[in-house]
Specification:
Layout lengths: L19 E5 L2 E5 L15 E7 L7 E7 L18 E4 L5 E5 L8 E5 L7 E5 L21 E4 L5 E6 L15 E6 L11 E2 L17 E10 L2 E8 L4 E7 L7 E8 L31 E5 L2 E9 L7 E10 L5 E2 L13 E2 L2 E4 L5 E3 L19 E4 L10 E6 L4 E9 L4 E8 L2 E7 L8 E5 L2 E10 L5 E12 L2 E8 L1
Parallel strand pairs: 21-26
Antiparallel strand pairs: 1-2, 2-3, 3-4, 5-6, 6-7, 7-8, 9-10, 10-11, 11-12, 13-14, 14-15, 15-16, 17-18, 18-19, 19-20, 22-32, 23-26, 24-25, 25-32, 26-31, 27-30, 27-32, 28-29, 28-31
Length: 483
């Protein structure tokens, strides 16, 4: 690889959640929603795409804007945001983009001759009589479209959403749906049927506790169909497996949690939970999928930043497929697509922390508690896009922890941190939470970024690093260097 790969895997100024990775030819293309830093609602920017060669997942190329929200004929004023999309290559070799506008009851289709070129509006998913899916009597809200073109060129569409706990009565008409499309990639060949159980399902069976909420995504591996979705817990991406594309799905398990919840056993943490030590990062909704690149599998998902739901960033991890065809839950790391631990020498930005929490743990990213400034957060100075000076962690207060996984420590003897703020205390560094101190770095108040150093003592080998601030005031944390 040209360089090391980190999480988030795109530039620090880029906020692309709901990631749908697809391999076309010798490149993997990333499609998703497009949040705005400091945005006041979801998906405020136009669709863009990035791609990387299948042999170098550190080198993501910006492909530019592929579809503008004003290109939809019903949204020429651009007032409606573009929600989570998907892309599939049709039987005719062209590429089809499926999307929905915010709270708009239809699924749009755009087409392009290249995976990440300029897509042109084609129409809406509709029946043979021209009735638009979502606007006919009895139709459910079409939401988060996902499309699979099968080996025999039959085309399947998945969409919909279900209620969260306590919303069953208000959303009694919401469920996940699946259907077949004609070869034109637009016309219904079959009417929508249920995909997997939601909280509106009387007997959810194996899905109990992990019922469908939203974020439909579909993949096929080794002749089996994998339905990826966000459960009613929000923070987790789950999967279901079937031998058929439109029926027979059974719950498979959790792929990943954006709070690293469930790795040590099932923990019933929801969006209503208070700060909890079991929550290792600030949680929120999740959306992504699994892709096979060469012979390895990866799960793509997103994290939350800036103390809100509306500035999300894409992350990715390798994921293990077990001999029975199920996946083992992946943990969040800083090294994601790197193919192994990061080098144990050099400078690293604090923004690649895979765990971030207050002394009491982390909480839902839109919880009122997070607004009281007792919690740290990923943020940046400056506006959205490139003209900002870089992302960092703000507001590390006494007992707050930023965790980084993993490093191949080899001979490092000193550790320095770059911080600013009202902090007066120490940055304690460990390789296990609450474990022995590897370094104790004194920090002092400063209005500008300042570097502080201390000896670093640990055995060589692969290990995480946890930075815990202890003292008065609050620290902004830009990065650290191993030397």
């Amino acid at each position: 690889m040209k360089s090391q790969a980190y999480n988030p895997y795109l530039p620090s100024y880029e906020y692309i959640p709901d990631g749908e990775p697809h391999v076309f030819g010798d490149r993997v293309y990333l499609f998703g929603s497009h949040d705005r830093f400091g945005g006041k609602k979801f998906c405020m920017n136009d669709y863009v795409s990035y791609s990387a060669t299948v042999d170098d997942l550190s080198d993501w190329r910006y492909e530019g804007v592929i579809f503008k929200k004003t290109q939809d004929p019903s949204n020429t004023d651009g007032k409606l945001a573009l929600w989570a999309p998907d892309v599939a290559q049709g039987p005719d070799g062209r590429f089809y983009l499926y999307y929905c506008l915010a709270d708009d009851r239809k699924i749009g289709v755009a087409v392009c001759d290249q995976p990440a070129g300029q897509y042109e509006f084609l129409g809406y998913v509709q029946d043979e009589e021209g009735g638009i899916l979502g606007q006919r009597n009895g139709d459910m809200m079409p939401f988060d479209p996902a499309v699979l073109v099968d080996d025999d060129n039959r085309v399947y569409l998945y969409c919909g959403n279900g209620p969260l706990p306590g919303m069953e009565k208000r959303m009694r008409d919401r469920n996940g749906r699946c259907m077949e499309l004609a070869q034109d990639m637009q016309t219904l060949r079959s009417e929508p049927g249920p995909s997997i159980p939601s909280l509106n399902t009387p007997d959810p069976g194996s899905f109990a506790g992990h019922e469908f909420f939203e974020a439909s995504s579909i993949r096929k591996f080794d002749g089996r169909y994998y339905f990826v979705y966000s459960s009613v817990l929000l923070h987790e991406l789950c999967f279901a497996v079937s031998d058929q594309p439109l029926a027979g799905f059974e719950y498979g398990g959790t792929l990943i949690s954006n709070g690293d919840i469930g790795l040590e056993g099932d923990v019933p943490v929801s969006f209503r939970s208070k700060a909890n030590p079991a929550v290792k990062n600030y949680i929120g909704n999740n959306h992504g999928s699994v892709v096979k690149i060469r012979s390895s599998y990866y799960v793509f998902h997103h994290r939350h930043t800036n103390r809100r739901m509306f500035s999300r960033q894409g992350c990715a991890e390798p994921i293990e497929m077990l001999p029975d065809g199920n996946f083992k839950q992946s943990e969040m790391t800083s090294c994601g697509l790197n193919g192994g631990p990061l080098a144990g020498q050099g400078f690293y930005e604090a923004r690649i922390a895979c765990q971030l929490m207050s002394a009491r743990g982390a909480v839902f990213s839109a919880h009122p508690m997070i607004q009281n400034r007792k919690h740290p957060a990923f943020t940046q100075d400056g506006p959205d896009r490139e003209d900002n000076p870089g992302q960092y962690i703000t507001n590390l207060r006494h007992g707050a922890i930023a965790g980084f996984k993993f490093f191949d420590i080899a001979g490092a003897k000193s550790l320095s941190v770059t911080v600013r703020g009202t902090c007066r205390g120490k940055m304690l560094v460990r390789n296990t939470p609450g474990g022995n101190e590897l370094a104790a770095i004194d920090v002092s108040p400063s209005k500008t970024w300042s570097v502080y150093s201390a000896p670093f003592m640990t055995e060589d080998g692969t290990q995480p690093l946890y930075f815990e601030y202890q003292g008065r005031g609050a620290a902004d944390f830009f990065g650290f260097e191993l030397a």
